[in-house]
Design goal:
globular; about 25% helix; 9 strands; about 30% strand; about 190 residues; binds S-adenosylmethionine; alpha/beta
């Protein structure tokens, strides 16, 4: 994971006026009321997600594109990362940021209107959600492949949900965090 962070420096995913703060371990504004997440939070979430080369990953709340590019490094050229961002201006800017890293298997775009995630592009081995849900988003659980893992903050608590081959799930909890809200519609 350290190699991914070294290959994808945060500074390339910040607006010009925030770049001098890139080394600060705190969320930084990226406009539209949204943030580039705190680096230790991103590292903790990626640790929980346990991403392997070749996996298909959904990145919900891709924002600046930083997590999408980090995931692209982790899955490598045999994998796929689908980054989704609800705010059109951020989705466009994030896509440009990701494209600078020459990881064509990792992309960022807007989700289909009214759809949470990308059920048409699943199932996914891993799903990362960088916005806070008020309840477990079952439509994302359904987009997991067998033995797939979803990491999502729900009412401030970080959840890791593993979906088993029979469709049942196991959930464990990993501390408390503050996030912007996961929105259903724009
Ligand atoms: C903490 S921010 C950005 C995190 C991003 N990974 C980064 O480090 O830049 C979370 C983003 O989730 C987006 N968001 C909220 N609800 C969403 C949804 N249903 N689908 C896609 N993006 C969503 C927000 O617009 C916001 O930009």
């Amino acid at each position: 994971m350290a190699a991914a962070f070294a290959a994808v420096p945060r500074i390339g995913f910040l607006p010009a006026h925030q770049r001098r703060f890139a080394a600060d371990d705190r969320p930084l504004g990226i406009g539209h009321g949204q943030t580039n997440s705190q680096p230790t939070t991103v590292a903790n979430m990626l640790e929980l997600l346990d991403v392997h080369p070749g996996q298909r990953v959904l990145d919900v709340g891709a924002g600046s594109g930083w997590t999408t590019a980090l995931l692209g490094e982790l899955v490598g050229p045999t994998g796929r990362v689908v980054g989704l961002e609800l705010v059109p201006e951020l989705a466009h800017w994030g896509a440009v940021n990701v494209s600078r890293h020459h990881l064509p298997w990792a992309t960022e775009a807007e989700p289909a209107p009214g759809v949470l995630g990308a059920p048409d592009q699943g199932p996914f081995d891993r799903i990362l959600v960088s916005a806070e849900a008020d309840e477990l988003p079952t439509d994302l659980v359904e987009q997991l492949a067998p033995e797939g893992i979803l990491v999502v903050p729900v009412r401030g608590r970080m959840l890791r949900v593993r979906r088993h081959a029979d469709g049942s799930t196991t959930t464990d909890h990993h501390g408390w965090y503050s996030f912007v809200p996961l929105l259903r519609h724009r």
